Amino acid sequence: MTDIFIAGATGYMGSRLGARLITRGHTVAGLVRAGSEKRLPDGCRAVLGDALDSRTFSAAVTGFHTYVQLVGVAHPSPTKAREFESIDRVSCEQSLIAANAGGVQHFVYVSVAHPAPMMKDYIRVRSECEAKIIASGLRATILRPWYVLGPGHYWPYLLKPGYWLARQVPSMRDGAKRLGLVTLEQMLGALVAAVETPATEMLRVVEVPEIAGR
């Protein structure tokens, strides 16, 4: 079993991932702001700190095998470019500092499928974070979903007819697969697999078709 540190453990995906890993026998700690400890899943140890300042939690990362970085702007949209810079980028940078300082052996990051004709600022920041992960020297797994279907995130189902049509056109088929929809269950399965089977190479990238196969 693996000791896992989750940044973003009280979020939409992080809380569910933490709970699932705990039921599978892993030791999990979650980074959380003071006062939000009750939002962590049962059995998850709280580490108080600010995801935007590694100095507040870096010492607590020592001894963990895997670091999962899930901090980011909720419900990304083209209007949130500044938040992508101040939250998504900074939290990734600070997570890398803490993971390196703590001797983490495997870094797991949820990025976004790209290239794509929309959400350019979001994709740019996430791509720059990927580059920072590669430069960090940490062994890493990067997952690249597009839209994740689940509770409170059902509107992308409206896009399914368009995806079906795109898959019938040879010139659009690859793009439709790369930017396809995945379910929350598939995403959690891919994250659990990333944690339980760490990358053997320095960088492993998991794209939508592989996520959807979970």
| Global shape | globular
| Percent helix | 25-40%
How many separate helices?
7
Which stretches of 5+ consecutive residues score pLDDT under 50? none
Average pLDDT for all residues: 90
Strand percentage: 15-25%
Could you walk me through the main structural features you see in this protein, from its secondary elements to its overall organization?
The protein is of the alpha/beta class. 39% of the residues lie in helices and 19% in strands. The strands form two sheets. It has a seven-stranded parallel sheet with strand order 3-2-1-4-5-6-9, with helices on both faces. Strands 7-8 form a two-stranded parallel sheet. The two termini are 21 Å apart.
In short:
This protein has 214 residues and is α/β, with parallel strands linked by helices.
How is the topology of this model organized?
Layout: E1 3-7, H1 14-23, E2 27-32, E3 45-48, E4 66-69, H2 81-101, E5 106-110, H3 120-136, E6 140-144, E7 147-149, H4 160-168, H5 170-178, E8 181-183, H6 184-196, E9 203-207, H7 208-212
Helix pairs in contact: 2-3, 4-5
Observed structural traits:
214 residues; alpha/beta; Rossmann fold; seven-stranded parallel β-sheet; two-stranded parallel ribbon; 39% helix; 19% strand; globular
